[in-house]
Amino acid sequence: MLNHQSPVPLYHQLAEILTAAIESGEFAPGTKIIPEITLAATHGIGRPTVRQAIDVLVKKGLVQRKRGSGTFVVEPQRQVNLFSLAGTSSAFQQLGIAAEKRIINPISLAEVIDGPENPFQGKEAYQFSRLTLAEQAPVLIEDFFLHKTLFSGIETMVITGTSLARLVADRFYLKPVNGRQTFKIVTLDLSQAKLLGLGGKDPVLEVRRSIHFPGVENGVYSKILCRTDKFSFSQTLGGHSND
């Protein structure tokens, strides 16, 4: 019950009670929560206070209002350990999620024109881009840049439907030793937005990742655009491969 003598606002107390009920499974995903008028009567508060509490749950991503129907508990986002050295293919496989890789730009050796953050800027490197779909929904755009000496001959190999991590290990006998990643929120250009099924002003997470191999820093550099409304992305430090 609510403590009307507490300095904690009543709407915040109610939000905590409802959050606990959702997290415990009392309100299962997809179910309709108790109507506002009932919550107000049960806790001896006004409906505006109840609405404030529901607003908190909406901002947390726990519930969704449906006009004319009520407020429903949303399905929790699954956490994909996308940013370990184990790579993106492995991340989805570990959750049993069917992921499809589609090549956007085929692999080629060319001068890199990207920006100062890219260690291959102004140099020749192997480059290709791919789109990842998880459960048939587009979730990632990945641009890869590979060291031209370390990966000499990769342009003759089949990369469609192949894990880059497996290719690096099985064909080049390479094992990454460590890496570095940076994160920021960006907006998409129109072509990127179309590929991810988003609007041009929708923000996405951009990850830039450098992978180092024995004796060679920045053997692989990648830029990943992540659609975050389908999955939550987490990070595990360490690992043994790159994708």
UniProtKB/TrEMBL annotation:
What Pfam family is a match for this entry? UTRA
Q: Which domain of life is it from?
A: Bacteria
- Keyword field: DNA-binding, Transcription, Transcription regulation
Entry keyword Transcription regulation? yes
GO BP: any one term: negative regulation of DNA-templated transcription
Keyword Transcription present in the record's keywords: the answer is yes
Q: What is this protein called?
A: Transcriptional regulator (GntR family protein)
InterPro entries per UniProt: Bact_HTH_transcr_reg, Chorismate_lyase_/UTRA_dom_sf, Tscrpt_reg_HTH_GntR, UTRA, WH-like_DNA-bd_sf, WH_DNA-bd_sf
Which CDD domains does the entry link to? WHTH_GntR (cd07377)
Originating species = Desulforapulum autotrophicum (strain ATCC 43914 / DSM 3382 / VKM B-1955 / HRM2) (Desulfobacterium autotrophicum)
- Signal peptide location in the record? none
Q: Could you cite one Gene Ontology molecular function of this protein?
A: DNA binding
Domain HTH gntR-type as annotated: residue spans = 8-76
